[in-house]
Structures are given as C-alpha cells and as structure tokens.
Amino acid sequence: MAVACTIVAALMLATPVSAGKTVSFTDREGDLGKFWWPPYDFGNHLFGDPMSWWQGESPIANAGYLDLLSGWVSVKGGEVTMGLEVASPLTDDSKLPNGVAEVRWVWFFYLDSEILAMTGSNYITYGVYILWDGADFTAALVDRSSGSPPFVVTYLDDFSVEGTVLAVTMSLSSMPGVVAWFSGSQIYKGSPWPLDQWPSMSAYGAMDYTDMQGPLSTYYAWQPMP
Ligand SMILES: [Ca+2]
C-alpha cells in the first residue's frame, strides 16, 4: 500500500513538470540592500562578504516585500511566465518606504549565451517589470533590441500581485532568442527613469538581486532559460 501511494504521489508531482519547463532559484531572507560578492576580489570584497548599500537601520531594510525568497521562469507552449516570491505580503495596507517614489520588481533577459561565463556583453535586451507607485501596480515589457532609445514599452495585462507572489505571463515570441535571466527588486527616490529611456542610476537603489548559484563564476547569478 505504501509503495502504491508513493507511485501515485510521484505521478502527481511529475504532472506540472511535464506540462512545461521551469528554471527557479532561491535567495536568502533578510538580505535587503546587501550584495553577496563573487569569489574573486572585486572592489576589495571577497566572496561571501555582504556589502551594504547604506549604513545603519533604514526603513527600507524593513520592507519585506522587496526581499526575494525565490523566483522562477516557466515556458509552456508559446507562453513564458515569470514569478517572484517575497518575504512579506503585499496588501491593501502596504506602503512604500519613506522617501521612496516607486518600487520595481524586475526580470532581466539576455541574448548572449557567453554571458553565462561573463565573457560577453551584459546588455540587457529585454526587461519585464512590475511597477508600484504606492497606489497602483502595472507591468511592462521593455524591448531594447533596437540598441537606442526610445525603446519599445509594451504594457502587460496578464500579471498578478497576490500576497507574497508576483507573476507575469506573456508571449515568449516577444523576447526572441533569450538565453539567460536574473531577477531583482529596486527602489527609486525622486523621479524613476522612464522605461523607454536608458536606465538612470540616479535615485536608484538595488534592493535584492538573486544570490549567486551553483559554480560561483559570474558577477550576477544568471540562470539559463527553461
Ligand atoms: Ca533575499
């Protein structure tokens, strides 16, 4: 009986996998505003050495909805779904941290397979964003394949923010040739840069980027596409 139950459970677990392909990651909890440096000396920081972007206890550091715990990209048929799980739920009562104008949760997609070895371009050809100005959530795909602004911004209807999970679904054909991705959360004080322009680092804060995974050979923790 126990064996039969095990087989049934295995079949049930196998079902979602056979319905599509997924690549996922996990990330430390409580690491907002910290960057876990790669295994070589970079700016005098060695692997495992968390560098904080600010000093002391900032209210931003308590915004758990910016703290990534896991994320994934799934491909099924012609659609790609990307998700992020964060540490604290987003509710009707959630507020932006003091002094923050906008929050962005992002999935960056790359065309260059060499990026996985950090020998090629790190040009972010496609970016998918969920944006929150403290009142409304929107989602958008930014296509920078032209190489120069104004870039093509497509607002996406098929997205969700439910508790601790944010997700976006869109056509995979909107990002032809992508081979790698990683995720992060960002804050903007003052005016966030317009999505159709080059990213501006002024007023920008990188809150949480994917922890290094597996062989720690890259600056960022790029994942392969499913
Ligand atoms: Ca985290």
Tell me briefly what this model is.
8% of the residues lie in helices and 40% in strands. The chain contains 1 helix and 13 strands, in the order αβββββββββββββ. The radius of gyration is 18 Å and the shape is globular.
Provide structural commentary:
The chain has 226 residues and is mainly β. It has one domain. Helices cover 8% and strands 40% of the residues. The protein is built from 1 helix and 13 strands. The strands form 3 sheets. Strands 6, 7, 8, 9, 11, 12 and 13 form a 7-stranded antiparallel beta sheet that branches. The protein has a 4-stranded antiparallel beta sheet with strand order 1-4-5-10, with helices on one face. It is globular. 27% of the residues are buried. The N terminus is likely disordered. The site of calcium ion (CA) has 7 residues, from loops. Calcium ion binds next to loops.
